[in-house]
Each structure stands twice: as structure tokens, then as C-alpha cells.
Amino acid sequence: MIIKFGTDGWRAIIGEEFTFERVRYCAQGTANYMHDQGLSDRGIVIGYDTRFASKEFADACAEVMIANGIKTFLCKTFSPTPVITHHVIDLNAGGGIVITASHNPGNYNGFKFKLFGSVSPEITNGLESSIQAVEQSQIIKTTNLNHPKNKNLLEYTDPYESYFENVRSLINIDLIKNSNLNIQIDSMFGAGIGLFKKFLSGGNSQISEINNHINPAFPGISQPEPIENNLRTLSNLVKSTNSDIGLATDGDADRLGVIDEHGNYVSSLTTFSILCLHLLENLQLRAPIVRSITMTSMIDKIGDIYGVKVFDTPVGFKHLAPVMIEQKAMIAGEESGGYAFGNHVPERDGILSGLMLLEMIALTGLSMYELTKMLFEKVGRSYYDRIDIKLGKEDHMNNDILNRVRNANPEFIANRRVIKIDKRDGYRYQLDNNFWTLIRFSGTEPLLRIYAEGESIQETQDLLQGIRKIAQV
Known about the structure:
alpha/beta; Alpha-D-Glucose-1,6-Bisphosphate, Chain A, domain 3; TATA-Binding Protein; 3 domains; 6-stranded mixed sheet
């Protein structure tokens, strides 16, 4: 199987495709790419998450980098992806490798390459070609980390200090700490374990945390993804303890899930819209917003209200990050629960996103439910849902689905007129009154995803089923 990068890096099942040999191919291809691009003199940061053998895979990458003469900053412990990315920028390193499969199930691991954040499709394609060339040649340089000759090329590093400093400069931490909030955290056994407590301990706010130990099996959840069906324990805990909010981060802590004070899951579309309102209304920022095509059309309405431009991109921060930088955007977000901020790094950050929400609650005195109500009063109510359909390995079946969608040209879906079809990333049907539905193959795992945003819960379900009929799945 050829190593191919998806929405954010390469991910595969451990022991089946994700092996030490293939990870070394990735590391050697990355070393070759960095040499070719003149990046290798600046060194590389290598970090990892809490998954099975992530540290050992990171060590294998470091052995290859050192053997190729590249100064390697190897993280001392597991770290969230945004923390590692921030460290790359802080050290002005030539790049970064993160061993993580983010939100994928526990039998997966992955390899991400970082520069200023998620790298562009052009860089991804160049890196992928370099890795595939190594696969063909099978020429890999490697060494032993403990060999005395490697002393000057290996530095064990703590990526947290500068990250903490930057986040504290962006958020009024003391306000949150002393707002008497009762906060429940679900770290989903991932790399974000303990970080909210480190930021917020010491005041009169109470911070409790579940799933705050390493367990690569991610027990009790289908995968470490902070979506509604994985947050039932957090929801029940918020209700039973009369907490103000529940926050959950995914496997590498670059995504955020939210539970309001009534135990209701707050969709990522609503969360992103509320974060935009915080920047615009409370912090009085005025700069563009970037959203993926799977993100809510409420953002376009917010842009109109506050007079800021909104740019949309295909799914994945490899698309959002370059636009965010080019347009000097204040925020970018995608439906998966990943949000980035312009005065931070152009990278999803679940920890900073959660702190932003807490700052808004502390500043306004409004609960998460009340903030959601305020949002809907400004832009109108909308409802969102997504269906994930597991796919087999038979390419012809996937091609059949794609052909059925490609050949369909519906005038209506669930009684909504189709205004236009956007084919940049799957098939997105723009409907009247700014509602929409989309079908696309996942870039990270063998899934067909169907999305919809409608005027009511029933309409949203009707839109999802309308697309299923077109695709015949």
C-alpha cells in the first residue's frame, strides 16, 4: 500500500499498515524533503500523543532525522498537536513531526508534518512524493539515539513553557479562575490531560476531569472524538453536579466538544459561531473569518452583521491555514470542532478554544445555553447533523457511490430548491435560505460522510436521507 496523506497527514491501522518500517519511510522522506527545501539547517521538532507506541514511533523518527544530520528536538512527554506546532514556530525550526491519529479509533496511529501549522496541499504533495520515492528505493538512514556521536544532534525539549506564556497573553485567565464556575473536563484519555487544570487552578472556579489517564484503548468511547455520542458520560456528569459547562478534547487536543449546563451537546457549528461573536462583540476585533464548506452558514450572516469578510475552503486545515495567513483572519473553523485563532498559530487548538468560551461566559455572565439563545436571536435558528457510513475496502463500491452522486443533478432535496452544487470537496448542495447538505469521503478513515444544516430537526434529517437516496447507501 502506497503511503498517501489525507486531510491531515497519514493515518493507518497499527501493525497492518502503520509499522516501524513505514514510519521510517515517512521520516526519511521528510528528511529528504527538508534538505531539498533548505529547511534542514533549522532542525525539526518531534512530538507524540498518548496512543499505543506513539513514543516509540517518535523515537524511530528521531533516529532517522539524526542519521540525516538534522538537529532534532524530541519532546520529553506526550503533547497536544497545537503545543508542538507552537514549539516549531517558537524555535524557528524547519518543521515538526507529530505521531498521532487525532480522533481516529484506538487501533490507528498517524504521522503529521507541521510548519507554521497544517501544511498546504502543495507542500503535502511534495512531501508525499518524497516519501513514496523512499518507499520505492527503501533507502533509509538510521542510528541509535543513545550513541555518543549523536549528542550534539539530539535535544530533549519541553514544548509547554512558551505555549503557556502565549495563551496567557491571549486569555484573561484570572477572570476565569475567579468567576466561581463549575467546569467538567473530559480529556478522552488524550494528549490534553491536565491542561485546563494547569491553566485554571488556584481560584474559586472548580475544575473536575474525567478520562484523565493514559489508556490507548479509549474505553467507553468508539473513538477519542468529542462528538455527541461520545460525550454522554460528560453530559450526565454536568447535570448531576449542577456544573456550568462541560468541555472535551480529542486524542491530540486540537478539537473541542461542548456540553451546556443542561447537559445538551452544543454542535460545533454553534460553538464556532459563538466564538466568532466573542471576538467581534466582546473583544471588538475586526478581521476576516475562514470556514470550511462543512461549517455553518450562520457565519456568513455574522459576517454581514459585523461587516467582516468570510472565506470558505475545502475540509481540512491544510486548506484553511494558508487562507487564514493570507487574509490575516482572526479565526478559522471547521465542522469537526477544530478552531484556530489569528493571534496564536494557524492550527486547531482545543485547549485555547475552550478557554475562549470560558472567558466569554465569565465576561458576559451568560451561560452556554443563554449564549446559544443569543446567537439564534441574531442570525436565526438552524439545526445540523452528520451521518458517518463505514465503507468496505472494495474500491469499485466506492466508485459506484461516487458515480451515482456525480450523475445526479437534483433540482430539489427534501423540498428545498438546489441553488448550486459545489464540487471542491465532495458534492455540496447549496439550498435556498442558506441551508445546505454535503456528501464526501473522509480524508482520515474509510467513511462516507453526509452533512446537513436545515431549518428544523426534522428537515435536517430529511436532507440527510435525501442524499442517502441519491447515493443509494
